[in-house]
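Collaborator request, handled under Task 6.
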Amino acid sequence: MAEGSIIGLDIGSSMIRIAVAQPLPGEDGKPRLHIIGAVALPSAGVHKGTVSSMEEAVSAVSKALERAERMTGLPLNAAWVSIAGQNILVQETRGVIGVTRPDGEIKDDDVERAMEAAKGVTTPSNYEILHVIPKSFTVDGQRGVKDPVGMNGIRLEVDAVIIQALASHIKNLTKSIYRTGLDIDDLVYAPLATAEAVLTQRQKELGVCVVNIGASSTSIAIFEEGDLMHTAVLPIGGDRITSDIGTILRIPPEIAEKVKMEFGHAVPDAVDRKHTFSLKDMGADVDEVVKRRFIAEIIESRVEELFEAVDAELRKVDRSGMLPVGVILTGGGAKLDGMVDVARRVLRLPCALGIPVTISSVIDEVHDPAFATAIGLAVWGYAIKGMHTNKFGKFFSKFKSVDQVANKIGQWFKSMVP
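Structure tokens returned to the collaborator:
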């Protein structure tokens, strides 16, 4: 791989997306992440974010990697990989340590010890820690400290969020990737990566929710005062809409998907009542004429259900209708016409499609909300490698999630290669 290249690999239930990035000098002279390659191919062997068939998953990832290598002309050796699914656990915790230096000055290693102490919370035996995310620090009772390094005190506390995943989920995902010959820089919880691509620090400070609508699930991440406030994965995605259309019209899923993409709209009133289309023209066996407004009514019902579930998560943290920035929609499902309008009505918040804001590129795909996670993974890796300074780069570099279980798998596969 060319020096400095960063790869984001987003393995979804319906699509595998790869973003290849390199840091280049920006207009202000500072390095800026530039996307030089973006690839999307159909996924296989993945169901609701977890590996369901390793052989199929390995084949699908290998094809995507080959396509990305041909596009960029670079060998891809390692990637930052997304991990999602409904088995992710999120838990708040606190770590407390004593500052042992005679002068009481807090150093980086004190912060690391505090975060290690936060990892001491009781976790299920079959789960592995993905991330320990610092929310704020307390120095000798002074709360709300964002960066304690350089301050003086004798007691350092950190309020953190621990994100965990099933050990079997991590094993199966990492094993599938290592079998393609690709190394893993780290696993990153997908909603966090998505947020890195489409949010500014100012938006995180004011209060914002990122909603990533995938094929089989929808993930949300709520930020306020720069910190992750809440995250969740909902078992509703774009495939549910496709299933409804297929069931009601009695057509195969692949044709239902074509109907959704070509004639779908989430707001029935925005569709001409007289607009019709033939299922025969879409490839169905039945010669039936369907009103586009009827399809919109099917979609609206399911989309309203989705955003009502999002609102329920907002209510859990008392932010229903109360986020100044509002909601940013990403993912392939967010591209359906009318989604922003329904989200705005149901959630009673400002809503917009998420476009990557921290990168540059001449590739059209980078403006696709479906690529937000893959690009966010590259942004995440860019920060942790020290090429760019932000909260994640400063505090996460020593807390990479691919450690015990995944590293053992990687070492085993490498030992098999001559």
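The cover message to the collaborator said: "The longest helix spans residues 292-316. Residues 346 and 416 are 54 Å apart (CA to CA). Please let us know whether this matches your experimental observations."
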